[in-house]
């Protein structure tokens, strides 16, 4: 039969017929076969006992199963030490091993050895991540201890990989799928094909979404072949690879790894990019600004919101210093023969970088003027051109933020008949984000505007602007089956999904004035009885757009989880779910003929949202918490339906007539303790950026906030409206308050349209006296999120009188324990 060692070695051969089975032929000699004696291995018989040796042996040699690549290429004896062999340590060269410390046949000797081999592999990954690159440590002792974002030394926890945020132990990762992907958690970048693979994953999944397409791919790939020399270029390569690593792991269908490994992949490279930027953060360059923006998104994906907040400020200040908010020269088409003039690629890349900062600042500042650092009237550049022109280095003229407007200094001879034909998805996404900022400003100043049911109100103008934005979309940006598959072929389906989800989310933001209890508006809208039809129509429209978000994301999920790659999508899904559940549980009239089908459609849509969040959880840790919350809501509704036979009770119950005007006015119940500029928009994340903020409500800090006012030395709300050009540059509708606006020379007003609020498809009914589902309590729908991502809104909280020293010790935390 032969001993177990020889049999295991024989099975390890790729093809016994090709290599010859006689190479591992056991002679079956008692007390140990000759092969094991020659190789100085312990000979294990069929009974599992190790044979004893009768003949004396020389000193046992150190058995090296694996040699590193460097020693193997130089044909030098390698001692096999991990993570670096003695030769590579002495020569200060990179030491890379192909596999584990022992071959597979050695681990196949018994199940215990096989399990230990897997654990050994995981420990090796942890050791590699902990020790990083030994050559860098020898040359630069500062690299021996990874630095945090603020430059301080980060304490190392044994068994954990030092990465961005709190990472789980590498030893806990299932090694079956991660063995072949261990290079993704290595501190050093891969080489050759693996490097190009992760870079391609970045350009396929992150580059197209939002405004991240500021890196010119052909130029970057050419530089990748030549090699990067400066620290700025190296930092950009590291953060691009860090983003691409997660999608590379996500797309491994043959060996699907655990979600923990996806969250670890690329973190060391992002850490290196952050180190290169923050080590000398006083140095400002375009490449460093690119790295700061991509680092912000990387931290945000990881749930490290405080780090993302600080990087957002750094990025915006870099943009100010680089002066990329203005065109490099009036020669937009690059017709001058001056060699020192910036190229077409450089100009367009700077524009895209500036718009990326604008979008980043808008979301980071929650759309509040006092919390954002960029103003639309200070951005005097045109919108980005389409991807084809950018990739092929074709100079073109596009519109500005205002519809139908171009840059003032352009001569008529260079302006095409339709500049919007040169615009792509990114340009229309920027406009819908600008609309979102206007909507947030309006909702926060609701009490100072005309009632929304009036045709000349700001509400009607914003509603018309959103409809006009959709009508102005070219065919290749519309959401249709033809466009879906066309964008899927060009790796832009994720961008198409994001722009339309943002559009429908804008409607949720606008129509939330009809759901003050759900969104906790500081000054709820009081609707008189004669305008109750408007309220019902607004609520129905809010439900409709929430359902549209669910439908779009369900369609995208059918094509793969990598298309749900934008970090804002989990919050859109969450808001969509709670609006639908609130509508059917609290607002829907049980006497409606279609009440049962409405309830079923809402539950199915929310269940689809829960599945989408499950798919997103591999990329976004917050998605798992959101999914669990939605699952709890669904359980409450299902329990109530099964126990009380909800539908039959609705149909048989006799409703008492109530006057529509008896709807309580919540203004007195919800006192306002802050100025409208500092009231929270709908879906804030401030509880994620500061521990314990979620437990403190506005009512608990009434006396302190009354004593604080940031508007003492700042312009009031009306002054901000006069100076802010969000409405002027967007120019989608004509504001009725023309006296308070300073129009630009290139402004072209659009006639105001009446709010196209579709009337309900059912007869007018009185408000239901009893909700359809009482199990879903209102507090459960309110207590999770609001849209202040980083807790900026709570910067106005009253501070205890502890003196300046204690006040400086108050720190931000990136914990998400409040969830």
UniProtKB/TrEMBL annotation:
Gene3D superfamilies membership: Zn(2)-C6 fungal-type DNA-binding domain
Record-linked SMART domains: Fungal_trans, GAL4
GO molecular function, one term: DNA binding
Basic and acidic residues composition bias: residue spans: 653-665
Biological processes, Gene Ontology terms: DNA-templated transcription
Zn(2)-C6 fungal-type domain location: 67-97
Spans annotated as Disordered: 139-159, 653-676, 738-769, 796-819
One Pfam family cited in the UniProt record for this chain: Fungal_trans
Any Gene Ontology CC annotation: nucleus
Keywords, comma-separated and alphabetical: Metal-binding, Nucleus, Transcription, Transcription regulation
Transmembrane segment boundaries: none
Main localization, broad class: nucleus
Top-level taxon in the UniProt lineage: Eukaryota
InterPro entries: TF_fung, XnlR_reg_dom, Zn2-C6_fun-type_DNA-bd_sf, Zn2Cys6_DnaBD
Localization (cell): Nucleus
Polar residues composition-biased segments: 142-153, 810-819
Record's protein name: Zn(2)-C6 fungal-type domain-containing protein
Organism: Hypocrea atroviridis (strain ATCC 20476 / IMI 206040)
UniProt lineage: Eukaryota, Fungi, Dikarya, Ascomycota, Pezizomycotina
């Amino acid at each position: 039969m032969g001993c177990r060692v020889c049999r295991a070695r024989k099975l390890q051969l790729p093809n016994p017929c090709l290599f010859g089975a006689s190479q591992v032929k056991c002679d079956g000699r008692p007390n140990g076969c000759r092969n094991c004696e020659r190789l100085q291995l312990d000979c294990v018989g069929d009974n599992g006992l190790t044979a004893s040796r009768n003949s004396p042996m020389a000193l046992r040699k150190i058995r090296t199963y694996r040699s590193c690549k460097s020693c193997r290429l130089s044909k030098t004896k390698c001692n096999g030490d991990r993570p670096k062999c003695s030769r590579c340590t002495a020569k200060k060269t990179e030491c890379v091993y192909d596999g584990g410390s022992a071959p597979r046949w050695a681990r196949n000797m018994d199940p215990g050895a096989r399990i230990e081999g897997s654990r050994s592999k995981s420990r090796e990954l942890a050791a590699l991540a902990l020790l990083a690159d030994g050559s860098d440590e020898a040359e630069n002792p500062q690299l021996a201890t990874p630095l945090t974002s603020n430059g301080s030394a980060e304490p190392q926890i044994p068994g954990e990989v030092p990465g961005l945020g709190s990472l789980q132990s590498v030893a806990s990762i299932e090694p079956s799928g991660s063995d072949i992907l261990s290079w993704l958690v290595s501190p050093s970048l891969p080489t050759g094909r693996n490097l190009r693979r992760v870079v391609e994953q970045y350009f396929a999944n992150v580059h197209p979404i939002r405004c991240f397409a500021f890196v010119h791919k052909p130029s970057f790939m050419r530089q990748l072949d030549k090699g990067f020399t400066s620290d700025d270029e190296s930092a950009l390569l590291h953060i691009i690879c860090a983003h691409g690593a997660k999608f590379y792991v996500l797309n491994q269908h043959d060996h699907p790894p655990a979600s923990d490994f996806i969250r670890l992949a690329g973190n060391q490279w992002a850490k290196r990019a952050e180190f290169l930027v923050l080590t000398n953060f006083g140095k400002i360059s375009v490449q460093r600004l690119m790295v700061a923006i991509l680092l912000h998104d990387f931290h945000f994906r990881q749930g490290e919101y405080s780090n993302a907040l600080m990087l957002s400020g750094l990025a915006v200040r870099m943009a100010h210093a680089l002066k990329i908010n203005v065109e490099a020269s009036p020669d937009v088409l690059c017709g001058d023969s001056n060699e020192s003039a910036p190229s077409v690629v450089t100009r367009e890349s700077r524009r895209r970088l500036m718009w990326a900062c604008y979008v980043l600042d808008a979301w980071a500042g929650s759309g509040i003027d006092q919390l954002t650092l960029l103003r639309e009237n200070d951005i005097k550049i045109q919108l980005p051109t389409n991807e084809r022109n950018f990739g092929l280095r074709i100079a073109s003229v596009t519109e500005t933020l205002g519809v139908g407007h171009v840059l003032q200094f352009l001569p008529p001879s260079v302006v095409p008949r339709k500049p919007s034909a040169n615009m792509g998805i990114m340009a229309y996404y920027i406009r819908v984000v600008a609309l979102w900022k206007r909507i947030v400003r309006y909702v926060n100043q609701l009490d100072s505007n005309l009632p929304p049911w009036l045709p000349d109100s700001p509400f009607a103008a914003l509603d018309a602007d959103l409809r006009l934005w959709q009508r102005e979309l070219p065919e290749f940006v519309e959401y249709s089956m033809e466009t879906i598959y066309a964008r899927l072929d060009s790796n832009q389906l994720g961008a198409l999904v994001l722009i339309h989800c943002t559009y429908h989310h804008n409607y949720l933001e606008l129509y939330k004035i009809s759901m003050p209890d759900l969104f906790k508006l500081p000054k709820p809208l009081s609707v008189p009885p004669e305008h109750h039809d408007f309220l019902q129509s607004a609520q129905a429209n809010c439900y409709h757009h929430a359902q549209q978000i669910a439908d779009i994301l369900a369609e995208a999920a059918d094509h793969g989880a990598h298309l749900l790659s934008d970090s804002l999508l989990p919050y859109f899904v969450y808001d969509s779910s709670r609006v639908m559940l609130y509508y059917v549980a609290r607002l829907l009239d049980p006497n409606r003929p279609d009440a049962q089908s409405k309830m079923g459609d809402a539950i199915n849509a929310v269940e689809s949202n829960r599945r989408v969040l499950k798919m997103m959880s591999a990329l976004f840790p917050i998605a798992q918490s959101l999914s669990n919350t939605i699952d709890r809501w669904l359980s409450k509704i299902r329990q109530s339906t099964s126990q009380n036979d909800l539908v039959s009770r609705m149909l048989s119950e006799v409703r008492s007539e109530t006057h529509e005007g008896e709807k309580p006015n919540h203004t007195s119940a919800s006192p306002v303790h802050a100025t409208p500029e500092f009231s929270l928009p709908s879906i804030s994340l401030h509880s994620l950026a500061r521990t314990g903020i979620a437990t403190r409500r506005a009512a608990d800090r009434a006396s302190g906030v009354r004593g604080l006012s940031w508007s003492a030395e700042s312009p009031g709300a009306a002054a901000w409206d006069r100076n802010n050009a969000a409405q002027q540059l967007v120019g989608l509708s004509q504001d009725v308050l023309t006296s308070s606006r300073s129009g630009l020379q290139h402004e072209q007003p659009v006639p105001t349209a009446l709010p196209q609020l579709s009337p309900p498809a059912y007869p007018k009914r009185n408000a239901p006296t009893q909700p359809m589902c009482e199990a879903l309590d209102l507090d459960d729908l309110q207590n999770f999120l609001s849209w202040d991502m980083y807790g900026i809104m709570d910067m106005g909280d009253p501070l205890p009188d502890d003196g300046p020293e204690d006040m400086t010790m108050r720190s931000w935390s990136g914990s998400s324990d409040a969830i």
